[in-house]
TrEMBL record:
It comes from Anabaena subtropica FACHB-260. Signal peptide: none annotated. Residues 116-180 form the CSD domain. InterPro entries: CSD, CSP_DNA-bd, NA-bd_OB-fold, RHF-like, RHF/RaiA. This is HPF/RaiA family ribosome-associated protein. It comes from the Bacteria.
Length: 188
């Protein structure tokens, strides 16, 4: 970290044990992602009167070269945050999840679903159990009756619209899965 870790205790006396725990958790975050610029942790025991004692709040501000992560863990309805170490653990777990999400976005690892190609049934050879699909880019793709996913091969008609997954076969492109779709599913 370029800027040293800052730990602040609010409404509670400083604790060497708590500070040591926070430092070890920050070290784990730095080992996970070594580009953290600064980190500030505030441990607070707000002046709220609860029947079962004080509930701790933990706020973590992490600065990165590409943004900032802020975690504010208010006491939950359950009383587990009466234990300062549980409150700290929960806050750092949330910080690590946000850091993982941030890294994934940076690496563009967010999952995108590529739309399957579509086309129209061009030719059917019912007796042989196969046919060809004309694709939107003008090519022709072979498919077998066993490739049809949600329909009856005998009910297919030339001109029916389909989506398909293609793969390289022995004689060129072929559809491994063919799904019959309605006209309202296609756009453009």
């Amino acid at each position: 970290m370029r800027i040293p870790l800052q730990i602040t205790f609010h409404n509670i006396p400083p604790s060497d044990a708590v500070e040591t725990k926070i430092r070890s958790l920050v070290d784990k975050l730095e080992n996970f992602y070594n580009r953290i610029t600064s980190c500030r942790v505030v441990v607070d025991a707000p002046h709220r009167h609860h029947r079962n004692g004080k509930l701790y709040q933990v706020r973590i501000d992490i600065t990165l070269p590409t943004g900032e992560i802020v975690v504010k863990r208010d006491p939950p309805e359950r009383q587990s945050h009466e234990d300062i170490y549980v409150a700290i653990r929960d806050a750092f777990d949330a910080a690590k999840r946000q850091l993982q999400d941030h890294i994934s976005m940076l690496r563009q690892e967010t999952k995108t679903h590529k739309e399957q190609p579509h086309g129209r049934i061009a030719t059917l050879f019912r007796d042989e159990g196969y046919g060809f699909i004309d694709t939107s880019d003008g090519s022709e793709v072979y498919f077998h009756r066993n490739s049809l996913f949600n329909g009856d091969f005998e009910q297919l008609q030339v001109g029916d619209e389909v989506r398909f997954a293609e793969e390289e076969g022995d004689k060129g492109l072929q559809a491994s899965t063919v799904r019959l779709i309605g006209k309202h599913h296609l756009q453009g």
